[in-house]
């Protein structure tokens, strides 16, 4: 009986996680928009990697590019409000800390499925401009 209860609890937790942004994600592509529709898909350069980890309201991201001798990372908190993803970066690498002098809160339109998500940026008029597209890796 104890085994049955444990298996049920595990499957419930797995289902809850799979229908949320919690987990580890790797960048797969970028989209450019004309305000509404996708106009171009751009793949990352060879050996470029960007990973984001969302857990318990916290976010950690890292990026590696062979052309950049200084790795990039950031850490902070996140929240979901409807179809909006809001990331507040608290600290990061030297370049990120310089950028944080002007902007710490990043808001995106969120398109989320079980195994993929896109964070879509928009301009001051609310038109879609650009997205980062991720695939779940855990």
Tell me what the CATH architecture is.
Beta Barrel
Strand order of the largest sheet: 1-3-4-5-6-7-8-9
**Mean of pLDDT:** 87
Strand content: over 45%
Biggest pleated-sheet summary? 8 strands, antiparallel, barrel
Number of helical segments with 4 or more residues: 2
Number of strands: 9
What is the straight-line distance between the termini? 29 Å
- For the record, the CATH class is Mainly Beta
Number of domains: 1
The residue ranges in which pLDDT falls below 50 over 5 or more consecutive positions are 1-18
Order of helices and strands: HEEEEEEHEEE
Helix content: 10-25%
Class from helix and strand fractions: alpha+beta
CATH topology category name: Lipocalin
General form? globular
Assembly classification: single chain
Cα radius of gyration in angstroms: 17 Å
């Amino acid at each position: 009986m104890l085994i049955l209860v444990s298996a049920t609890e595990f499957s419930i937790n797995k289902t809850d996680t799979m229908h949320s942004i919690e987990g580890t994600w790797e960048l797969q592509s970028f989209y450019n928009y004309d305000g509404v529709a996708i106009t171009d898909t751009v793949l990352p350069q060879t050996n470029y990697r960007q990973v984001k980890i969302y857990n318990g309201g916290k976010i950690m991201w890292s990026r590696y590019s062979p052309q950049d001798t200084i790795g990039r990372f950031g850490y902070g908190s996140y929240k979901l409000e409807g179809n909006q993803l809001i990331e507040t970066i608290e600290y990061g690498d030297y370049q990120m800390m310089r950028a944080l002098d002007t902007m710490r809160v990043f808001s995106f339109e969120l398109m989320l499925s079980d195994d993929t998500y896109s964070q879509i940026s928009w301009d001051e008029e609310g038109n879609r401009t650009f997205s980062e597209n991720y695939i779940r890796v855990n």
